[in-house]
User: Fold these one by one.
Assistant:
Number 1:
Amino acid sequence: MAFISRGFRGKRRDAASSSRVPPGQHVVGDFPVLSAGPTPRPDLAKWSFTINGEVDAPKTWSWDELRKLPAEDITVDIHCVTKWSKLDTSWKGVSIDTLMEGVDTAAEYVVAFSDGGYTTNMPLDEITGHKAWVAYEYDAQPLHPEHGGPARLLVPHLYLWKSAKWVRGITLKNEDEPGFWESNGYNNHGDPWREERYWGD
Amino acid sequence: MGRLTVTRLTWQIGEVTDIVQETPKVATLTIEVPAWSGHLAGQHVDVRLTTDDGYQTQRSYSIASPPEEARLALTVERLEDGEVSPYLVGELRPKDSLELRGPIGGFFVWRAGDPRPLLLIAGGSGIVPLMAMIRHRAAVEDHTPVRLLYSSRAFEDVIYREELERLAAADRTLTVAQTLTRSQPAGWTGYARRLDRAMMDEVAWPAQEGPQVFICGPTSFVEAAAGLLVDHGYDPRWIKTERFGATGG
């Protein structure tokens, strides 16, 4: 017989939002902050976004150059491994497809890297095909440093630790290489709908 | 000594053996988990609650007990509009069963034997994972110098107050500095304001000591503390943070 928590009644969700909330998650109204260390203080004059690694010629954009690329408005649900989900968040940023235009690579994996030393790994085909962006606005405002500003990766179909805050680039890799949380007990893939939270999930 | 596990973290049923009210809103649950694999100081567990018609919800809670204790202790703050914490602090009774899995998190952990001096900074119930570190250090009689800066709203909100007093009195290498931000009892000799630069300069190790720092509390508190330490000359890589918002539930 399945376990029942004696005396627990729970707060019920309406069916509409339930269908959008992955298992084990609950919807929040605010925007919690999670990060493993101090919030970096980058100088935008020296900021750049780089695609390097298994590529003939690395590509780099300055802050001003990135801001001049075609940008998209993105409205998505986001899911944090710490159990909260936030629905209909609105962002503005540049699609990874736009950044990858003209990049010739046989790499199948990427490691995103950030100010402060944070890294996270993903298969390349999970951030291309209109699935990921470099986002620099949230709710029509410059992205707040606590939430990853000046720019963060936005990969909404995976748990939010994959959406690297303070992102500075992606390294294309032939082999999959676990990033920061992926080396510290968290799942290598991180699909919230399959509840891939931790190692072995 | 706990260790990280590469195998799947399976859900386990523990039995609540004891509940101690630490403050008006905070209680410590002691749980017997028959197949507990051990943990490191600073790790957390996921708790899953299930209703009789199958609805489930999960939250994460820091482990308060040191690796050396057989039973798991979770210290939980009751959030009035939360879904899980009012059940854990209010409904749950000794002999009840609780479903959990863990330990989780391999970064915000401290192991005795690390030679760097420790600076622990806690806001409110952010003391919980730091207390696991303090208890771990005491249990193995490690004498790494530790300074704890602990901010609470009022005297009655201070979690583990007597135990911290007792440990600090018995150990010259453990220094506890406290601040009460909202109200202070008569004769209070600690700080009586929000964390600020002057307080941090008095409590923090000089940067030359190359300390290791763990900060846990609400986001605004963690941001302020980490920012002050970077200004103080600390390398950001020395500083590990853990946060909770108003959504712990």
Note: The two ends of chain A are 23 Å apart (CA to CA).
Number 2:
Amino acid sequence: MGSKTPLYDKHVEAGARIVDFGGWDMPLHYGSQKEEHFAVRERAGVFDVSHMTIVDLAGDRVREFLRKLVANDVAKLENYGKALYTCMLNEDGGVIDDLIIYFVGDTDYRLVVNAATREKDLAWIRKQAEAFGVTVTERAELAMIAVQGPKARELAAPCIDAAHRDAALALKPFSGLFAGDWFVARTGYTGEDGWEIVLPAAAAPATWDRLLAAGVAPCGLGARDTLRLEAAMNLYGSDMDETISPLEAGLAWTVAWEPADRDFIGRAPLEALRGRADKRRFVGLLLEDKGVLRNHMKVVVDGVGEGEITSGGFSPTIGRSIALARVPAGDYDRAQVEVRGKLLNARIVKTPFVRNGQVRIDV
Amino acid sequence: MSELPGDLLYTNDHEWLRRESDGSVTVGITEHAANALGDLVYVELPEVGQDVDAGGEMAVVESVKAASDVYAPVAGTVRAVNDELADDPEKINADPYGDGWIVCIDPSEFDEGELMTPDAYQELLDDLDD
């Protein structure tokens, strides 16, 4: 028996197939993973993401602390509520975790980190925070739901306190606000519009019921994975980990090099890798032959070398198999993947594969 | 889950088989297996005329989630494969004991001792639920 979120009984009630996910009993699907996937692409779905770890930071030197702790630069966050996606690196430039940071006040930031990395993240953050006098508070008492899809905000808006509803609907992408004791942000992990809502655990079941009654489909971890893969959003532990630099995981865009004197943890090894010609590529693959690409399959680039699929699967929206892969440096646009002893043909494509309901690659 | 068809035999690996009047054996995966895999998206079929060993890998079914081998319940030669699964693998989810059949084998020998009756397979499923 794993940990249970405040919505566990709701999942069982909705007929969920429950699986262990990083020590949590979570819904995999509620009948059909594909139908849940399309509900989000075409209309609206809701995910329980209460297993994710919310950490509040406070202190006079919190901004200075975060400019040291993570590879992206919180100095980019000019307005309250703005969000920043970033990696937290170790001294070797490997990724301890990827996270979202919300700027909630001059001396306050909110972090959302992965569930499976909770303990090491908290230990690392607390260790680094000491020198800055920053207090680190885990908010385990809060629940979190993600409402995603083209109709998500419209269908979820009635759940938001009326005094804050218009402001919530006016949120720009990648920003959030406090709506009473809720925190609503226009963020997500699906490639669709929507909100991620942090709310008191006691309010979560009634909100869940209300969303389902409004026609929002309950969606499990299975659909969450196919949606994020189509959107080419990285999954920690699959696409990157402590041995992988963000520069070899397609996350160079999250590294703020300027100002050059900002000494974030892991900067020196990243600088060293940055100019290297043998730096591995991180690419999207579309399988041209029939079959399904899976994590850890070997990628073969004729005359160049070998790589590995870090996230592979079937894309319900495209109807073909797609993958993210780490492959050798070089100028090429085709590769082969070893599937059960056979080499199948794949094409390197520019990601995302799908965004806002639209296929974005040539199929 | 609905009741198991009474005219079939079953394996530990959640395949079913039916002895046809002409001596051939039709094979598929059970509703339990199809549900556990979830929505199927791809089926890799053997060649017609290929020899298969009892318990040997014969086909692969892949869902959104995972790939799973389908084993030959009897030794023999592949007489026919369900080509319609290439374009519509979800037939296995929709009708696992009918339109979702996978392979038809001409058995070289038929050892019923390794196979389960519907009652025995139901017991296996009940144990899995506990």
Note: Chain B has one domain: 9-129.
